What does this fold into?
Amino acid sequence: MDHADRFIDLSLADADLAASHVLAAYILKPADGYDFLKTVTHFAAESGCGTQVPLANEDAFSRTLDVIAYQAEASNGLVKLAFPLALFDFNMSDGKASITSFLNLLAGNTQGMAEIADLKLHDFHLPESYLKAFDGPQITIAKHWTHLGRDEAAGGMIVGAILKPKLGLRPKALADAAYKFWLGGDLVENDQPQGNQSFAPLADTLPLMADALKRAQDETGAAKIFSVNITADDPTEMDMRTEAALEAFKATPNSLAFHIDAYIAGPMALTYACRTLPYFISAHRAGHAAVTSQRSNRGYSAFVLTKINRLMGASGIHTGTMGFGRMEGNEADRPIACMIAQNVAQGPYFEQNWHGMKRSAAIVSGGINALRLPSFLQNLGHSNFILAAGGGAFGHIDGPTAGALSLRQAEACWLARADPFDFAADHPEFARAFLSFEQDADIIHPGWRTALPHDITNQ
Ligand code: RUB
It folds into this structure.
């Protein structure tokens, strides 16, 4: 008998284990020449005791911490593992759970096992006691909705932009771009690489940005929000950027939010920001596709990444565009947005009860414009999220104010279930989006050139 055989028990089911274990669902394919079930047992052994040979120093207690493979389907590669809760690491300081420990166990060394060709984590389930040991969000989208004077339970789409071009604008040009967007929109967010570049030092940019926000508020009579990227390699530098932002926005503190490049900078950066800043924290995910891509058979899925961001406490999480923008994804990604915003939500393999943990808001970004937005909304079924359009805002033929208005109008068009051509007749910014994004218009609304009034679509 292989020593690892003790790590598999196919008589068990989700319900037998869900209260006492973390459950994880993978798609596994053994490397050429390896038997499926044998590989599964080695995978479970590696996940638990961390090696595949019998250990002379194991004792009765250490064996109670075995990770058990309880489902293994050779036909489709589905493998479910159950991790006893005692395996996980909790803080010395406050007893909190740790995503670093979680990822180490569920997607650590096992990712590199020679006998496994494909191994991707697609879903996980946490029992109540472990889930409650994570922070979860402290600040939610309700803070933004309240600031904007909207219903705090379902305040609708926050019309946001990611500043483009992502690099190359000097401080005054950055502030000017934000100001013009704010005249029509609600929120401006730094793009993920925007930081303290030599041509746009934060010390110069932040005061100009605060001044632009104040002018836009005064001019429109509406509240505005700026989400500043404070990502850095170490907490001291993050603190310095935070202090600079707080100082610049001291007259309008409710207008300030913070952005973390949460995938690239890792769990420590996001957790640190969420624990130290009583502000809305956005988790950007640039770089994630290296691990989560639907074309990759290793790593973990975008669904898993998004779910762990809620556990860590992100107020808003980039969830993609479900194939309606320009990044990889498809309509079936809808559960990603549901999992972070509901109290009980169904994942690909497990239903998760969040036991009252506060929700995270979806941040929808990556190629969305006024023409693509209605189909996206139709697939999602609501508009209670933050839109962060880059090209869709700054690529509008009449500039970012019109870009912002076109996005707001696109939401209104969908909410009214109006015919887009009829709606365009008395919403010029929406109408001019057809001319701004002609290639999309040709695909989404063929015939638009004749359906819309000539004076609107003419350059
Ligand atoms: C948006 C943008 C975003 C990413 C986010 O600009 O650059 O940072 O695309 O993608 P644009 P995701 O609207 O012009 O694409 O949210 O999928 O991670």
